[in-house]
Amino acid sequence: MSITPTKDSKRSSNDDLPLDEVDGEVGHAVKITTHDEVFGDIKEDGPNYRNVGWLGAVVLLLKSQIGLGVLSLPFALMTLGIVPGILCLVAIAAIMTWSGYCVGVFKLKHREVYSVVDVGEIMFGKIGREVFAAIYCIFMIFVVGSAVVGASIGLNAVSVHGTCTAVFVAVSAVVGFLLASIRTLGNISWLGWVGLFSIVSAILTVTIAVGVQDRPALAPTTGEWDKDFHVIGHPTFLQASSALSSLILAYAGVPTYFSIAAEMRDPRLFNRAMFISNAIITSIYIAIGTVVYYYCGQYVASPALGSAGALMKRICYGLALPGLYVTVTIYLHLPAKYIFLRLMKGSRHLTSNSPIHWAVWLSCVGTCTIIAYIIASAIPVFSSLVGLIGALFGTFFCIMLMGGMWLFDNKSRRHTDTSFGYRALFFINVFLVVLAAYLMISGTWGAVQDIIDSYNADGGQSAWSCKDNSNSV
């Protein structure tokens, strides 16, 4: 069981600690202030991995969601139509809130869980651990790749394509590496405030800007123009699937919830933080997506910050850049932290400040950064990359796995609990598993087709391109 450190425990715990618990300094005992099922003994002279309060958790949860998804929402609403789009958004929000609740409950029942990889091991043994580890790391690094693309778009917009886009992608990856090298989420939580203020300021600015302008930036500059606003859209099957995948990615921070809960001082408060963050996120998504699409119609840009003209695009991306880099930071930090914990588990260097600790940690962050850079360079189309991530990984980790977790933890009740409540929850979670499988197949198909179409289009984006990607839609 986890022991939350108190003022008294910090003064009195481990007064008789043996001298071999020293990190190499004979005669100087290191006091252990907390024992944790994930991090082991947390020492006074090492990093405190359990230092996130519930308010800090709200900020981290908000920033894990608001960053990429909100920038593609208006484009998704344009594809689906405003009414089906909002209904799908609310339905996905409800599903993701249930998934978040399942995370909080599962974490309290299985205190040793740090990430979805540990869930895989609990549910499916060692094979499950290895499969989940690969999928989890790939998913998180793909999100980093899309955030790096978003940051490169921002640099292109602010500088008016001051240099080759490939350079901006590399610069964004380096900045992400430097920020993600901060070792604990407690120390990153202040960046969450910065990122949250940054991205919300940017999307509010573009929302106000499109509302006061005569016409969207992408509409014809002179003459009549047709907004082509659809209450109900008429997308093809693949277009609708890709749009749904973008909506799923808007809530695809759910796999990060385990790590945030694991670094909270009191994980019992996680669900409080999660409910608050999801209510805020859904309100922002509905307001921003609806207003931007209403005023821009078919001329909405993706990312949405380019919808209000050249000058406003520069201003909005200038505001958004810190938030985009915080998204890179959080999603780069978490897979690197998982790999680091896996490599250093059981070692005294895990919670120390030794050279070995730093060398392994920086190597983990560096490796994840390089892979994310390759992904960002190879698939530089923002909307398509967002759709691919949402379909291929978001459906699995945010819907299918969470439904499976509930079924796993409640399997002993299957033949004994005949109550309506249990049976209803059982069928709901089975339905979520099946729904996630369908959305994964259809959404991935649609996103891959979008990427192929972009490569084949005249003037489309290509791998390691120098073309200005801030003008793409």
Structure description:
By secondary structure, the chain is an all-alpha fold. It has one domain: Amino acid/polyamine transporter I. It contains 14 helices and 2 strands; from the N terminus they run αββααααααααααααα. It has helices at 7-12, 54-65, 69-80, 82-109, 116-159, 165-180, 185-212, 237-249, 257-262, 270-296, 310-344, 355-378, 382-409, 420-456, and strands at 32-36, 40-43. A two-stranded antiparallel sheet has the order 1-2. Helix 4 packs antiparallel against helix 10, helix 5 (116-159) packs antiparallel against helix 11 and helix 6 packs antiparallel against helix 12 (355-378). The N and C termini lie far apart (51 Å). Mean pLDDT is 81; it is low at 1-30.
Main sheet: which strands, in order across?
A: 1-2
CATH architectural type? Up-down Bundle
Roughly how many Å is the radius of gyration?
23 Å
Low-confidence stretches: 1-30
| Count of separate structural domains | 1
What's the SSE pattern? HEEHHHHHHHHHHHHH
Question: Could you name the CATH class?
Answer: Mainly Alpha
CATH superfamily: Amino acid/polyamine transporter I
Report the average pLDDT across residues.
81
User: How would you characterize the largest beta sheet?
Assistant: 2 strands, antiparallel
Beta percentage is under 5%
Distance between the termini: 51 Å
Number of helices: 14
Give me the count of strands. 2
CATH topology: Amino acid/polyamine transporter I
| Proportion in helices | 55-70%
